[in-house]
Amino acid sequence: MRTIEQTTNEILDLAARQFSVPRESLAPTDDFYKKLGLDSLQALEMLTRLEQHFGIELPDYEMQGVTDFGTLAGRIQARL
Amino acid sequence: MFAPSLAKMLDLNKYDCLGAALRDALERWPDEICLIEADRDKEKARLTYRQFKEAALPVAAFLQERGFRAGDRAAIIMTNQSKWLISAYAIFFAGGVLVPLDYKLTPREQLALLAHSHASVLVTEYPIWRALTVAEGFQGLGAKTILVTEAPTKAELAGALRWEDCASVAKSELAFVPRKRGDWACVVYSSGTGGRPKGCVMTHENYLEQCMALTALYPFWPGVRYLSILPTNHAIDFMVGFIGPFICGATVVHLRTLRPEFVREAFTRYKITYMSLVPLVLKNLQKGLQSRFDALPKSKRSIFNALRATNRGFTRRTPKLWLSRKLLGQVHAAFGGELRALFVGGAFTEPATLQFFYDLGIPVANGYGMTEAGTAITLNDFRPFRPDTVGKPLPGMEVRIANVGADGIGEVTVRGKTVMSHYLDDPVLTAETIVNGWLQTGDLGKIDESGHLQLFGRKKNMIVTAEGKNIYPEDIENAFEGIPVKEFCVFAANYIWPERTMVGEQLIVVLHPEQGSTIDEPLRAELARRNQQLLNYKRISGYAMWEQDFPRTASMKIKRVELAQQIGRALDRSAVRPL
User: Fold this and answer.
1) Distance set, CA B43 to CA B78, B114, B278 (Å)
2) Mean pLDDT in residue range B302-331
3) For residues B487 and B517, what is the distance between their CA atoms, to the nearest angstrom?
4) Please, is B334 exposed, middle or buried when counting C-beta atoms within 10 Å of its C-beta (0-12, 13-18, 19+)?
5) ipTM score here?
6) Which of B44, B133, B319, B497 has the fewest CB atoms lying closer than 10 Å?
7) Contact: B104, A40; criterion CB under 8 Å
8) CA–CA–CA angle B280, B419, B467 (5° rounding)
């Protein structure tokens, strides 16, 4: 079982790879819409990658109101 | 467009209310499929019109048993799924007024609109209900009957009832409750989540007339499959993804995700005929296709470009679907092979994007509308294709340009049977918005010689995002309450400094610091922190400093028009600092 810190780190690793930004430039408190310049569909695409990575299924509504990596990690952790 | 079974469509002239029209539709096509519900790549439900009726009537009976009467209001907060439409029909059957609320709003916003609408019934999904029960203000929820779908077996429902139990609970005699054309059908909120609620009261006539106008241009018939991804509470999906297809015996496919990969799959799996989307999703489809074209080997790309040019040449005057499907078969196969048109609305679509699809033989019918006017005011009819415009007024819709300037541009005003009755409980706003029967849209436009409407920007203080979200600055000011300044006001930048554009709009906050102080780093940090708490599409992009007192009314409300004019005269856009 991963800790929340591990989950958060894996999310940041994956986001850095998917959007080609340096891993060290991303922090858990970052707003991924702003930091990565995402629109809502790109955020859903990121969610799909995260689902594949963690082997879970997150309904779209789990992204409602979530804008930072830390909160996203919490939503994912709850389903691991 | 040719419609094989148009004669079978219900004649809506003969109906006084949506409930009666839908009731007859359910009788007329008992064995046709009316609804398919898919989640990702799994199909969750498939209902015939007969099964739809059998699912809805117990809900209607249950509501009646709980004292729900003609004219009572019932809200729905649900994602796109079969129970949304089933519940809506049950509400109309019982003579109720439907209040469709956006499931994407925050629970606090939903509770505020529920209170404003005075809904006595709420139908919602379990995850949404769970969020509502722990939100601030939940104790004040006025709805007496709450139905929750898909709740886990042992879930605590905080006084709500299971939607699925209606069938076993309802025992009363069921009676259809007719309504008149002028009676309220829906209260639809076009804004007001944080400020002044704008509940558009739509009559049965509004919907019946709009449905006739739209289906005259883009008909449905049994066998047509409409893919629904826009929220059903949205005016476009409510009409084109519910009322329109149902009164024609067509099929609605609900997809409970917006993920691009599943949307693409749904086209081929369900051989979709029509779909409505917002510019953002259309752009996403364009990007996906363009990258596939770019990846073609050089020789194939040349052939493809030649075919596309040929198609463009042959369809200059009017779409020729049969020809486009032959010339560009692979592209059309990726869309399921039976796509006739995409409808795009909710925000302005760039002409280049419309042209991209048209050249592939996929007509994108862009239009222009606002909740207050019914679903659509104008729509492109491809006679001929004019991507630089938002089409011609729909049948029965009068469009007049008011206060025309030297360049022929003025405010778009609209009159017709689809224009709302009024704003709920707001006679002042209604009087400002509907003047002598003409709806003042607040948008700037011009009608050309061929009768097409072109849009050039906005007169009103609002922005529209590519996702089709209308954002009124006053609605987001709550987020900045209490910041350490003397006063502040949020504006659409284009409202202060008018620009002839419909895209790339931004919000800014104007700050009047306390005397002797300035906008320092802690204040900037606080602004940024508050901004982060807003949903991403509602955020402000910058701030400007203003050192004079804001003009105010006797009741101390900011005179926004006057303030914007003062700022616009004294400062230019370079005064805005990014946040």
Assistant:
1) 18, 32, 24
2) 93
3) 13
4) middle
5) 0.80
6) B44
7) no
8) 10
Choose between B245 and B350: higher pLDDT. Answer: B245
Q: What angle do CA B122, B125, B128 make, to 5 degrees?
A: 90
Residue numbers of the domain that contains B252: 6-175+182-270
**Pair B262, B282 in one domain:** no
Asked if the C-beta of A58 comes within 8 angstroms of chain B's C-beta atoms, the answer is: no
| Cα–Cα distances in angstroms (integers) from residue B569 to residues B293, B474, B498, B499, B565, in the given order | 49, 22, 12, 15, 6
What element of type H or E holds B59?
helix B49-65
* Element spanning B470, H or E: strand B470-471
Q: Does B384 sit behind a cis peptide bond, omega within 30 degrees of 0 on the bond before it?
A: yes
Instruction: Report which DSSP code applies to B15.
Output: -
pLDDT at B272 over 50: yes
Spatial CA neighbour of B274 closest among B232, B240, B322, B234 = B240
State the SS3 of B500-531. Answer: CCCCCCCEEEEEECCCCCCCCHHHHHHHHHHH
Paired residues of B341 in beta bridges: B274
Q: How confident is the model over B526-540, as a mean pLDDT?
A: 87
The residue-averaged pLDDT of A41-47 equals 86
Q: Are B103 and B80 in contact (CB under 8 A)?
A: no
Contact B311, B360 (CB under 8 A): yes
Q: What is the mean pLDDT of chain B?
A: 91
Task: Give the global pTM.
Answer: 0.87
What is the CATH number for B404? 3.40.50.12780
Cβ–Cβ of A33/B536 closer than 8 Å? Answer: yes
B259 and A31 in contact by Cβ < 8 A? no
Question: B329 and B446: one domain?
Answer: yes
Which CATH superfamily, name and number, covers A4-77? ACP-like (1.10.1200.10)
Report yes or no: A48 at the B interface, CB cutoff 8 Å: yes
B203 plus B102 within the same structural domain = yes
Contacts of B106 (CB under 8 A, 6+ apart): A65, B135, B193, B535
Number of domains in chain B: 3
Question: For B535, which of A39, A45, A65 is closest by C-beta distance?
Answer: A65
| pLDDT of B31 over the 90 cut | yes
- Contact criterion met (CB < 8 Å) for B258 and A41: yes
Residue B532 Cα, gap to closest chain A Cα (Å): 8
Please indicate, yes or no, whether residues B397 and B479 belong to a single structural domain of this protein. Answer: no
DSSP H or E segment with residue B490: strand B487-492
Question: How is residue B232 written in tokens?
Answer: 């059903």
Give the minimum alpha-carbon distance from B257 to chain A in angstroms, rounded to a whole number: 6
Give the model's pLDDT for residue B114. 96
Tokens matching residue B355:
């042209």
Q: Which residue of B has its CA nearest to A62?
A: B127
> Per mean pLDDT, which range of B49-63, B531-545, B561-575 is the poorest?
B531-545
CA-based end-to-end distance of chain A: 8
User: Helix, strand or coil for residue B222?
Assistant: coil
Is B1 inside any structural domain? no
Cβ contacts of B551 within 8 Å, gap of 6 or more: B558, B559, B562, B563, B566
The C-alpha atoms of residue B62 and residue A32 are separated, in whole angstroms, by: 45
Asked if A59 lies within 8 A of B532 by C-beta distance, the reply is no
Pairing label, strands B145-149, B97-100: unpaired
pLDDT at B172: 63
Rounded (10°) angle between helices A69-77 and A4-18: 120
CB pairs under 8 A between A and B: 47
